[in-house]
Amino acid sequence: MSEPVAGPVGSVVPGALPQRRAGGLSLPVVSLGLWQNFGDAVPFADQRRLVLHAVERGITHLDLANNYGPPSFAAEESLGRLLATDLRHVREQLVVTTKAGYGAWAGPYGEHGSAKYLTASLDESLRRLGVDAVDVFYSHRFDPRTPLEETIGALGRAVRSGKARLVGISSYSARRTAEALEVARRLGVQLAVHQPSYSMVNRWVEEPGDDGRSLLDVTAAAGMAVVAFSPLAQGLLAGRYTHGIPADSRAARGGPMRPEWLTDETLAHVAALEVIAREGGRSLAQLALAWVLRDPRVTTVLVGARTTEQLDDNLRVADGPALSADELAAIEPHAVDAGINLWAARSSDL
Q1: At what angle do helices 308-315 and 284-293 cross, to 10 degrees?
Q2: Is this model's pTM higher than 0.90 or not?
């Protein structure tokens, strides 16, 4: 990415969005994930335009991981360019988070949950971002091959070294979250935040675990912030697939949304949800985001908009009314699992 940064530097001022507070964090109700639209295939000017627009609209939480791009660390490098220029003067108004757990480089210490991998990945993330510390560093997934004491211990050392201000976990099940919290208590580590997938068609965080508590129950009892990712189910709940698979969609490009998930039954439920959204004066995406935010245990929803227009549509949920009891009752028969939790077998089912 060699394009120069264009436009005035230091002119971005964060707007105002409603905030929710938990786990020592105050987060806007809508946050921006830099997962799939911040790799080398996307012009830097487009990435810059989206991030600066998000901040101007009040999105002060920017979420990353070491494998976001592609290639690995590309999204962090892009944001690092912005933190050194346009966003330099507002760095401490932003919550910048990153994760390690999935594949970032080759070899036995290029993924999973070992202390060696987590430490090396965080150092590389800080180098790419051009910062001394991130606001949250996550264990991106549960690793059954590594003792939790090692993984959580590495998170604790990240805080004690000053490289992370807070730490958390992502996609851990209710059972594994409870275990991680107990290990963290013994080690004197605060797990401040959990980042699970959650949407109207992916409701695993509500399901009771071994002790009868759901993941949302466990996180609430621990006072953790909850950052709900994929609330639009990879575009499914943004209406992207109502009339087939667009050529530029994630399903068509071989992304995480797989065409075989777009069954007639699932699309019929989505069509019914679109009717409910329209009758309430909302877009389908706004309905989906409002539904996740209906639960006060959810601190923020993490969106991955490709354009400023998509982002603006998502942000209207912050100004809109809460879903009524009648709307929630109408949604319930269609808010059913669509089998799209592609992270389950690699974390939350373990």
Answers
A1: 50
A2: yes
